[in-house]
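User: My advisor asked me to double-check a structure prediction for LysR family transcriptional regulator before group meeting. I don't want to rely on an old file, so could you generate it fresh from this sequence?
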Amino acid sequence: MSNLTDMEIFARVVSAGSMSAAGREMNLSPAVVSKRIRRLEDKLGTRLLQRTTRQIALTESGQGFYERVIAIIASVEEAEAFVARGSAQARGVLKVAAPTSFGRLHIAPYLGKFLADNPDLSVNLDLEDSFVDIVGDGYDMAIRIAELSDSSLVARRLAPVHRILCASPDYLARHGEPTSITDLADNHVCLAAANQDPWRLVGPNGLENVRTLAPVRTNSSEVVRECLLAGVGVALRSTWDVGPELRDGKLKILLPQYRASKDVGLHAVYPSRRFLPAKVRVFIDFLAQLYGPHPYWDAGLDDWLTLPDQTPSEKLDRPLTQSNVRP
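Assistant: Sure, here is a fresh prediction for LysR family transcriptional regulator from the sequence you gave:
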């Protein structure tokens, strides 16, 4: 390993656990390693390592610096590989943020295949339902289910998202089916997480808002789902979330002429189109191929998801095709 930078030596010391072990790996004497670390600390104006006779420990500044250094080294190695082989190979750590339920159901089960196809890559998948600051929090990309507004970020639409009103047969046996939006709002238990109130529904009369009211209030979409299955009330859910229950008859679609906005979609969001790392590109391509314009979670629901004509030539929510997938 020649022409080592001080940052590379620092990273190797941390991974090896001691200066002597790192020196053996790099064919450098412990004295040289110690001198290079001191030079780096002097340049930065802070202590990175707490040294004892047998081991080292990262300071708080050192921990933050190390996390960023290994990301820089991975990017440099990727750039060198691109030049050497004429194509970029995915390698390093891919840091991804995704919604909790979607990540658990539709990302985690497929990571094994993705990693088998990309053996030089590892994935750090963070699941949370709030929107993260991709750049500020150090993410390579995020998966978002939203109607995205213009921003400095780049978004690629991966799949359509169908959100429908539904309830369990047990709830409907006790309360009957709503016959209209007014009946739904006035006479039924409407379940929603705190950040999903009100419901914004598109129907024959355009956009309508429905305020939700239920004996259960929560900030968790998964709690809403469990209450829905338990017969507590009506909920507005995505087919990626309740597709199996709809097919099995555990849930029934209500007022099918009403949906959440068709502009809501599943998106991969990342900072820059121009400098797109190979690790981000291959993961986005993998998900796009996995989901597609007719995602597997909608299989068997075509008759329910295709609405009657609103006019002779228009449907409220026509299936997404390759021609209108946004990059």
